[in-house]
């Protein structure tokens, strides 16, 4: 009987401790630079790049077409606190799997004039960037929600 009680006690302890939620939150990037670009397009809205920091949001005024070789160099102006508030949840959508990508080009961005996305961040002191296809069928499913969230935020900010 004591043995059965001991086994039951061990099982209850294992189950109760394994079901506890972790109090640790996933770390977030120090900043996220995000935006879209379209090659065969005219007008100011063809290239929109933003820099989201922990307490501020900026918009780039250069509107240069990003490339897959160099980090984007922007000239940023601060946007309103309301626009920051509307955008700050993008930090929570950042897919940590992106950090382990071996290639900074994902899919075929803007290959068929459907545009691409630029994403840059500093995560744990490491600066990285990616050029991501807007055509989600060319991109791993694990990034689809982030693509949707970036496009939603860019649309709100225009």
Q: Taking all residues together, what is the mean pLDDT?
A: 85
Query: Count of DSSP E strands?
Result: 7
Give the biggest beta sheet. Answer: 7 strands, mixed
Task: Report strand %.
Answer: 15-25%
- CATH architecture group name: 2-Layer Sandwich
What's the end-to-end separation, in Å?
71 Å
What class do helices, strands and sheet pairing give? alpha+beta
Task: Note the main attributes of this structure.
158 residues; single chain; alpha+beta; Mago nashi protein; globular
Summary, kept brief:
By secondary structure, the chain is of the alpha+beta class. The chain has helices at 2-18, 81-87, 90-93, 144-157, and strands at 31-37, 47-53, 57-60, 76-78, 105-106, 116-123, 126-133.
What report would you give on this structure?
The protein starts with a helix and ends with a helix. A 7-stranded mixed beta sheet has the order 4-3-2-1-6-7-5. The chain contains 4 helices and 7 strands. The chain has one domain (26-157): Mago nashi protein. It has helices at 2-18, 81-87, 90-93, 144-157; strands at 31-37, 47-53, 57-60, 76-78, 105-106, 116-123, 126-133. By secondary structure, it is α+β, with helices and mostly antiparallel strands. β2 (47-53) and β3 form a beta hairpin. 27% of the residues lie in helices and 25% in strands.
């Amino acid at each position: 009987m004591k043995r059965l009680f001991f086994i039951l006690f061990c099982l209850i302890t294992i189950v109760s401790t394994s079901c506890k939620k972790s109090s640790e939150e996933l770390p977030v990037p120090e900043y996220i630079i995000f935006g879209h670009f379209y090659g065969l397009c005219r007008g100011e809205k063809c290239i929109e790049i933003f820099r989201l920091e922990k307490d501020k949001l900026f918009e780039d005024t250069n509107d240069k077409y990003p490339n897959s070789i160099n980090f984007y160099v922007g000239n940023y102006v601060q946007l309103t606190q309301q626009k920051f508030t509307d955008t700050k949840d993008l930090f929570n959508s950042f897919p940590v799997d992106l950090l382990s990508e071996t290639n900074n080009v994902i899919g075929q961005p803007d290959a068929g004039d459907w545009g691409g996305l630029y994403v840059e961040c500093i995560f744990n002191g490491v600066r990285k960037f990616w050029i991501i296809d807007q055509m989600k069928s060319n991109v791993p499913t694990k990034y689809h929600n982030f693509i949707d969230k970036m496009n939603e935020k860019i649309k709100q900010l225009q």
